[in-house]
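TICKET: design request
STATUS: open
ATTACHED STRUCTURE:
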């Protein structure tokens, strides 16, 4: 089941990227613009086919964070 779903998403991704690349205007782009456009196509397609995650919470526990630590951080940022 899992493999089938993964293959389906993979095929959907490939198809969508191919379609977007064919639709894109590439004539007058320098290499940096070309790279940026390709990156945008892949990132947008990934977001559509796989979804978007906020990621893991890095500071789930903050038992060590107190006013002393906060002050040290404020001082360091100055």
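STATUS: resolved
RESOLUTION: sequence designed for all positions
ATTACHED SEQUENCE:
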């Amino acid at each position: 089941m899992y493999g089938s779903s993964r293959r389906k998403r993979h095929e959907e991704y490939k198809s969508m990227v191919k379609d977007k690349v064919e639709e894109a205007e590439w004539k007058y782009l320098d290499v940096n613009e070309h790279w940026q456009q390709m990156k945008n196509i892949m990132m947008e397609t990934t977001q559509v086919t796989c979804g978007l995650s906020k990621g893991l919470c890095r500071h789930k526990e903050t038992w060590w964070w107190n006013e002393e630590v906060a002050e040290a951080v404020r001082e360091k940022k100055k």
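CLOSING REMARK: The mean pLDDT is 85. The chain has one domain: 2-77.
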